[in-house]
């Protein structure tokens, strides 16, 4: 440690990203100019030897739930000596960042003390830095990489990239302690769906994402997946060792400008029947708690639900504001089991599945919640209203009790029903 070195930083920052998105207005290049003196308090710690562990996977337990907490999170141990941080796993964005005592200009409340940065800055010409900026981006100060991420809910983080040590446990009882790039975020604005955490774990397909970085160091295959339990918790994994690929339904990844994990053009199936809502651009986004359909499809979906509820003992609960649409029964509901029988499954069906059609089945417990007032509320929301334009999002609620896998090498997204309650032990597959 020792006397902090003062680095003058030019904040000429461009672009980026999305948690639940960056669809629409946020897509434009955003530029911001600002001066800030960044006091670094760490020393360039001696780098730990990265020991490549061939064919290992990394499994991390998840905490949280869709309701009432509203998000899942993972604990990562970062730094030397390592300190714990709670991060929001986000397949909708690339950059991992921590609220950072650089010092912090604007930080939000966090469960742990803010991260203390070291001096191991990622230089501006590093390809990782370039991947976070527009192609036209010019380095104002070559020795550092400034970043800004803007999320679809209006939240943002601004900071500088540096390298630090991440401490993981591999599935084959090996410890994996790579030096990876992360953002020291010293200026955060909370968005509408703000989660009071220490930072974000970027799991997207870009070079800066944790899974791409682990892969480029030869530590795991470029595969990330999660298993969110409907009873809360679950696990997140990097690498392909925790599942049996032959038991997964795979569909090719489709590419869009924002580089989201998309299975492309889906069709809405309701109660096993086609609805006529087709060509839906569908994105899988673990950074979003709820699911979203574009306005027209949302309207159609609600009509189908309401038609189905005709004659059933459920009435719209206009006094429950938990979510836009809730229903109550004669008595308050305790669990989803009390209401399941009144609702049908729906599904998104993707025509390009490698074996016939790939159905992503969504049972009532994966699109409804029971509110604290005992009504049942719809966890599928109007995406147009949320600023997602035509994008349809499969959020955490609809990915519960499934293993969802993003294979960036095979360029495929896969899923399978799974018991997500316990992380697999060394070399144990789960299904
Ligand atoms: C890794 O394993 C060790 C020993 O089993 C445990 O104490 C530690 O908490 C684990 N670390 C993480 C990040 O899970
Ligand atoms: C969805 O949101 C859009 C934009 O706010 C609105 O025009 C539309 O009426 C909404 N659709 C439904 C079914 O509520």
UniProtKB/TrEMBL annotation:
**GO annotation terms (biological process):** proteolysis
Gene Ontology molecular function: aspartic-type endopeptidase activity
* Residues annotated as signal peptide: 1-21
Coiled-coil region list: none
**Where is the catalytic site?**
90, 285
Tell me yes or no: is Signal among this UniProt entry's keywords: yes
> InterPro entries given for it?
Aspartic_peptidase_A1, PEPTIDASE_A1, Peptidase_aspartic_dom_sf, TAXi_C, TAXi_N
Protein's UniProt name: Aspartic proteinase Asp1
Keyword set for this entry? Aspartyl protease, Hydrolase, Protease, Repeat, Signal
